[in-house]
# Entry
Amino acid sequence: MAKDLVGLLVAEVNSAESDRDEWILDTGCTFHMTPRRDLFIDLKTTDRGRVYMANNTITEVKGVGSIRFENSDKTTFVLHDERYMPGISRNLISMGSLKEKGCEFKAENGILKVIKGCTVFMKGIRRQSLYILQAFVRTDLNGESSNVAGQEDKEMADIELWQSRMGHLGQ
# Structure
């Protein structure tokens, strides 16, 4: 039993390092949220606002702004009304907020596609019971990016670029 707990602890420590850059596509959160101020392309600080968390705690909202993402095919999208909440530990994208903005979702073969109109503008890959966003956070206009979870090495990104340009109609 003690050996199992040690393995679990090591797994939790290792996953905590990558959690900082992962974005979870979440059906349960009300807003897009992140504890990382450095990712915002614009941010309006505030002393108002609290979010009630699933574990029955209250976390303060310290700002609201926008974050730009870049897909592997070099297309970009911006999430607005992102909450800056230093008291949380994970980056969350609210699927409910996306739905309110007219997005639809299609999950198949471990891939969740977020669709607006006829365009798939965001994808998540299923890992265990979560869908993890497949994109880069783009923090400046010069094209420098912060690697976000799920991005493979350059070769895999090139394959995805090829597939996105030559993929099947209707995807």
User: Anything to note?
Assistant: The first strand starts at residue 23 and ends at 26.
